[in-house]
Write a structure and sequence with these properties.
Number of helices: 18
Strand order of the largest sheet: 3-2-7-22-23-24
Largest sheet: 6 strands, mixed
Number of strands: 24
Bound molecules: zinc ion
Distance between the termini: 27 Å
Strand content: 15-25%
């Protein structure tokens, strides 16, 4: 194993006291107290540490004090820092990497805890339509007529029956209840006849540019409704109501639950799409928040920020206002509704996806948020839409220039050379899907190899020096960072198909995407994202080294321990 020499920089966590004061000075009580105050809380030894810090990429050991890394280097040197109260963790040559960061996550804890889950949220698993109908029937039996019966985490390409879910399947659940099954991608939902009836939708109801009521070969509604067309269902049918107290209780339990799931997979920071900020703070106060939150505000919360002058960066190391929640500008990659400049291959009548905003509205929104000092964040999947959001970004920055602009493009799925150049020029940060390369390989045939060579373009971004982060979009994609890494490195899916192999990146590059680039996306790269003295002590111990295992087994590497702020928040 190579040796790595220290530099003074590696003790910068002790700065002020300086290296000299680490040497015991017998007879000096005052200095002894100083020294015990400087004793690390934790040292990790005998590890294969990938720091993701270009100044010292590899190390064997590090020390943690007051939740921060304070020294990084060789085991024998770090060992010399041990004090009476220092905990020692012998990593026995296991791999240690910075805590993983998910740059886009809906954190749907309440759905996971309380709703009917018809697919596997966390990994590839096939289900039958009969199992979906059975689960919903069971819920319907416990639900008064007229109330919604809803299923979640459906994936149209993970169905054993090898046919689409239809209105007829959902009519079997009930004709007394409106029934819906939401695709995990979040942009399409399947409804039963009762739901259509309550919403007044018939086969004669027209589609719009922002969404469709899909038909079968005979022109009848087939049950599937896309994007904004679903708005007609928002205010029909009944839903349970809860008191303010009950809502808070539910949200607290939901956030505590999802936090446990995140750290189980090695995530120590997650960019949340909105959610109950009060509940989040209560979960933290009672010690159940195990990961850090970059809170991305939407709706009323965003309006309150603008009205009251709260800007990106307000908060602390655990809960901090980041960019806005995604401002949705088009449809979905996985559900094939994103806005393309060419028709979807093989779709009749010709279809180019849904654009859910206008350039004028988008310009106005971006300008307003940007002027309020808040980092903008737009959801754009298709090349048509990425062009639109870049136009809005360029305009806002021209009118009101700001040095560290960093607008986020959530998903940023289908690019071309011109878009790449403009992303670089505006300083935009793309956050392509984390786990789709592996998880959604069964959907790429709908786009074809030519388009897939320009989708989730991690290679193009890396080559252009654009710090793309990774956003799982959970629920749409599983959030497991190791599954994400495998897909980025191999571009081979669960079904053995490889798509857009030109966009492969190395394990080292994927590690950056999943750590420091996620920190950059929320303006927190000085605080986290690498194992560097002075930064938050967030790290993950892996049972195996993704740099050396068979790339097709990266997703199976066990998370042995997840540590946030020096505290073990998950242990296998
Ligand atoms: Zn999303």
């Amino acid at each position: 194993m190579a040796r790595y020499s220290y530099s003074r920089r590696h003790f910068m966590g002790f700065s002020g006291a300086g290296i000299a004061s680490l040497v015991p000075w017998p007879g000096s009580v005052a200095l002894a107290q100083v020294n015990s105050a400087l004793e690390p809380d934790l040292i990790v030894l005998n590890a294969k540490v990938y720091t993701v810090d270009p100044l010292e990429p590899r190390a064997e050991a590090f020390a943690v004090k007051a939740g921060r890394f304070v020294a990084v280097g060789r085991s024998e040197d770090i060992k010399s820092l041990v004090g009476k109260r220092t905990q020692t963790f012998d990593a026995k040559q296991m791999t240690v990497v910075p805590g993983f960061i998910d740059a886009h996550n809906h954190a749907p804890g309440a759905i996971l805890l309380y709703d009917v889950i018809v697919g596997n949220p966390y990994q590839v698993e096939f289900v039958t339509i009969a199992s979906i109908v059975d689960k919903l029937k069971e819920r319907a039996r416990a639900t008064p007529p007229g109330f919604w019966v809803e299923g979640f985490f459906f994936d149209d390409t993970k169905v054993e029956d090898k046919r689409p879910l239809t209105v007829h399947d959902l009519d079997q659940v009930s004709r007394e209840h409106p029934v819906s099954v939401r695709h995990r991608g979040g942009h399409t939902t399947y409804y039963n006849s009762k739901a259509f009836e309550l919403a007044g939708v018939t086969k004669a109801t027209p589609n719009s540019a922002a969404g469709t009521f899909d038909r079968d070969a005979n022109g009848e509604l087939n049950g599937r409704v896309t994007d904004r067309a679903r708005n007609v269902f928002l205010n029909v049918g009944k839903r349970p109501t809860y008191s303010a107290e009950q809502i808070l209780l539910r949200n607290r339990d939901a956030l505590a639950f999802i936090s446990k799931q995140f750290v189980r997979y090695g995530l120590t920071s997650v960019h949340h799409q909105g959610g109950d900020l009060f509940a989040l703070q209560q979960v933290r106060a009672r010690g159940d928040l195990l990961h850090r939150v970059s809170y991305e505000a939407q709706d009323d919360m965003l309006e309150a920020m603008i009205a009251k002058g709260i800007t990106t960066g307000f908060g602390d190391e655990w809960i901090k206002f980041g960019a806005t929640a995604e401002h949705t500008c088009d449809g979905s990659f996985s559900e094939r509704t994103m806005a393309l400049s060419v028709p979807y291959p093989g779709v009749e009548p010709p279809y180019q996806g849904n654009v859910t905003t206008t350039q004028a509205d988008l310009n106005a929104w971006v300008e307003r948020v940007h002027r309020a000092g808040i980092q903008v964040n737009c959801h754009a999947n298709g090349d048509v839409t990425i062009d639109m959001v870049l136009t809005a970004f360029e305009r806002a920055q021209r009118l009101y220039p700001r040095p560290s602009f960093r607008p986020k493009i959530t998903h940023c799925t289908l690019i071309n050379e011109d878009l790449l150049r403009r992303i670089k020029a505006t300083g935009a940060v793309p956050a392509p899907f984390t786990s789709y390369g592996y998880y959604n390989s069964d959907k790429f045939r709908f786009y074809g190899e030519a388009l897939m060579q320009r989708c989730m373009a991690y290679r193009s971004f890396a080559d252009a020096g654009i710090p793309a982060a990774a956003g799982s979009d959970f629920s749409p994609g599983p959030f497991a960072p190791m599954m994400g890494m495998q897909g980025m490195v191999t571009r081979k899916g669960w079904n053995g198909e490889t798509w857009g192999a030109n966009q492969r990146i190395s394990v080292a590059e994927a590690l950056r995407v999943l750590t420091i680039n996620g920190a950059y996306a929320s303006h927190e790269e000085a605080l986290k994202g690498s194992i560097t003295p002075g930064k938050l002590a967030d790290f993950v111990v892996l049972a195996d080294d993704p740099h050396t295992v068979d790339p097709d087994k990266i997703k199976d590497i066990e998370i042995v321990r997840t540590v946030t702020g020096g505290n073990a928040v998950y242990q296998a």
